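User: I need a structural model of TonB family protein from Aurantiacibacter gilvus for a docking pre-check later this week. Nothing fancy, just the predicted structure tokens so I can convert them on my end. Input:
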Amino acid sequence: MVMLRRASSLIVCTAMLAASSPAAAQDDDWLQLAPATSWVLDYAEDSCALRRAFGDEGQQVLLELRQYSPGDSMQVIVTSDDIRRNDSGFRFRSSRGVTANFIPDTEPHNIGRPLGIDNGDWGEGFVASLGIFPARERALAARLASEQNVTLQISDERRAERENEITGFAVGDGFREDFVLLTGSMRPPMNAMRECLDELLLHWGIDAEAHRSLLRPARPLRMEVWSRELQERYPTDMLRAGEQAIVNVRLTVNEEGRASDCSVQNSLNEPTFDELACELLLEHSRFEPALDGNGDPITSYWVTRVIYTMG
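Assistant: Understood. Predicted structure tokens for TonB family protein:
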């Protein structure tokens, strides 16, 4: 994730590959929490989400995996009303911050200090960005794509292999106890997620079939210039009130590389944040248009997260 910092705001504009820790993904004394429910798939207006509860009564944890567009990256929410976060300030025991990874990976994905949330009946937890593939594999794919100036497609065989080998999801240093959620194979739930995402693209007026063989996705141009416009505009009223936000945004990018529509996905924010982020992105963002399998420009989309944080 390209992170552009300023005293009063943080803008996140692409997917992040966080550093991996050499520590073991799980120790023998970690809680092993079996499923308490089946997976539930949420067909939301602008996203798709998988939810499942784990653990017996008194040790229950809720896991949500949400995707705002097809791809590897997903928003992960982990909350519990039974297992408390480390403290009310959400300061973590380890200087490396919170770690999370899919088992059988032995190198936890370091997500630093994620945003703390209160999920009502399901208690407190955190929200973060994570990919289903190991961090090193994602980093290699990103480097090769950059060097060759192409979009690298993950083969169906590799995706099936990866999703079938997963047995759990480990969370370290985010709560008073470390635990592993025993998910079992992620192949069936992720297949259901992809079906939902295909329907989502059709709902947006996007050709899902053409997007499976893109030569190039929509790419931001001079992002450092127009993202600065967002950095410098923290809503004044929200700043005074001490309000923070994560704005998940989807832009429709036309064949000329202009953002023709802005949609805020699954908003949990004060509307002021959502409206300002869309207004500035529509005015200032510029793109190379997506190219279909024949090399012709095609209407596509681009998703990002604008994070407003104090300090």
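Before docking, keep this in mind: The mean pLDDT is 82.
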